[in-house]
Amino acid sequence: MTTPYSILDLAPIPAGHDAAEALRRSVDLAQKAESWGYSRYWLAEHHNMPGIASSATAVLIGHIAAATSRIRVGSGGIMLPNHAPLVVAEQFGTLATLHGDRIDLGLGRAPGTDGVTAHALRRGRMSDNDFPNDVVEVIGYLNPAQPGQQVSAIPGAGTQVPVWILGSSLFGAQLAAHLGLPYAFASHFAPDALEEALETYRRSFRPGITDAPRFMLAANVFAADDQNEAERLRTSQLQAFINLRSGRPGPLPAALASTSEIATLGAPQVLANTNSALRIAAVGTPDTVRSELKALIDRLQPDEVILSSAIHDHTARLRSVEIAAEVMQSL
Q: Strand pairing partners for 75?
């Protein structure tokens, strides 16, 4: 049985283009992903990022859902510290009312931005203790309204939009296990706690909204018909990650002319740290990507895989996503 496979999209703004072009590309990618058998198309909330056009995540989810017909569309994720739980429930309840049972709500506890921008979002400071309570509150608004309930999400009540917990640490794993929720780990950029978090989630899981643990693994994929070309396409992500970690976020850079130029991107330790953070990846020809994804799936036994491909050239990105679909169908 084929492991379900999905797409994580940040609607990257490529250098030399604008947000409008980024959003057009996301619609095109989602439509093609639907035809290639992808299960979900998730969009991630970030703010004040010159290279990311998915800040108004719920709005973009509605746009993508309207342009597709079968693929599930959702958030990977909504950063709950930025929002009142009632507003999130109303937004996703509205999406589910418009598009039926195709909407997912992935929730994260990071702000998805810097401190100054978090202040501009006007939510105020939250502690780790607030996130679990807010998750429960969101779920409550999406459940059928109870007699005497003073506040309801309209639309929202009774839609029971599926909720996922997103995380990159033991905190999210423990919360998802405690609430009986599916869990997606951000292994595509923060994999250090992956094995421990997964073991904690599976060991501690208590049936709740779902009867059994459901784990989604995030991985980077850069696929092409030529190995060197796939590795060259990946240099856009390497540049963007180094720029972000160096305090210089910007549009998604064009790929380097040659992989030999990678050594010029930073000091050896910077490159080593970048490669370590982005190591959950499959890069290369269809055969190479098949081998690397199979090794990840065999080792971690995910219930689903969500793939991220930060590629500057849209045609190359489409080909990479198509190859990944063919690979996943063959496993």
A: 43, 105
Confidence of residue 55 (pLDDT cuts 50, 70, 90): very high
Q: Could you tell me the end-to-end alpha-carbon distance of the chain, in angstroms, rounded to an integer? A: 8
Of the candidates 201, 203, 208, which has an alpha carbon nearest to the alpha carbon of residue 185? 201
> How big, in percent rounded to 5, are the helix, strand and coil portions of the chain?
45, 15, 40
Chain CA centroid to CA 4, Å: 15
Widest CA span of the chain, in angstroms?
67
Q: With contact defined as beta carbons under 8 Å apart, do 197 and 172 qualify?
A: yes
| Cβ-contact 13, 53 below 8 angstroms | yes
The secondary structure of residue 8, as a DSSP letter, is E
Characterize 66-75 residue by residue with b for buried, 16 or more Cβ atoms within 10 angstroms of its Cβ, and e for exposed.
eebeebbbbb
Token digits of residue 234: 């990946």
pLDDT one-digit tens code per residue, 91-138: 999 999 999 999 999 999 986 567 787 777 766 555 557 999 999 999
Closest to 101 in 3D by CA, of 57, 40, 162, 144: 162
Q: Nearest Cα to 229, choosing from 293, 330, 296, 311? A: 311
Distance CA 69, CA 47 (A): 28
Q: What is the pTM of this model?
A: 0.95
How far is the C-alpha of 244 from the C-alpha of 49, rounded, in Å?
Answer: 9
Residue 185: CB atoms within 10 Å: 29
Task: Specify whether the CB–CB gap between 289 and 223 falls below 8 A.
Answer: yes
CA pseudo-torsion sign 318, 320, 323, 324: negative
Residue for token pair 């109870």: 146
